[in-house]
């Protein structure tokens, strides 16, 4: 019984900061322009565990441009703005 409580306490301590970072990142993303929000929404699920976050962001942004979701003219600025919020996930 003590082992289960100890494990539960450790998991709560480890998960707590991750949830706080996600909440802060989501709050940050709420204030982004629509194109930047699309980039954030696309990259956020994989960002924290990505071995190369910059490559992930580039790939996701390119896919959004090809799909017509993000305009080519605003892609760079949208990715840069989204990156500011995505960094909170790390």
Unreliable stretches: 8-18
Shape: globular
Beta-strand portion reads: under 5%
Helix and strand sequence: HHHH
- Work out the radius of gyration: 16 Å
Cα end-to-end separation: 34 Å
Biggest β-sheet: count, sense, barrel?
none
Secondary structure tally: strands: 0
Q: What is the residue-averaged pLDDT?
A: 85
Structure annotation, total helices: 4
Query: How much helix is in the residues?
Result: over 70%
Structural class: mainly alpha
Care to describe what's here?
The chain has four helices and no strands. It starts with a helix and ends with a helix. α2 (34-47) crosses α3 (53-66). With 90 residues, it is mostly helical.
Short account of what is shown:
The protein is mostly helical and 90 residues long.
List the helices and strands and how they pair.
Blueprint: H1 2-30, H2 34-47, H3 53-66, H4 75-86
Summary tags:
77% helix; mainly alpha; 90 residues
């Amino acid at each position: 019984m003590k082992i289960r409580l100890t494990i539960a306490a450790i998991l709560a301590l480890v998960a707590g900061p991750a949830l706080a970072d996600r909440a802060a990142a989501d709050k940050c993303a709420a204030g982004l322009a629509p194109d930047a929000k699309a980039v954030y929404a696309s990259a956020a699920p994989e960002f924290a565990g990505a071995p190369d976050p910059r490559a992930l962001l580039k790939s996701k942004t390119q896919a959004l441009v090809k799909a017509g979701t993000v305009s080519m003219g605003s892609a760079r600025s949208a990715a840069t703005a989204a990156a500011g919020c995505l960094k909170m996930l790390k």
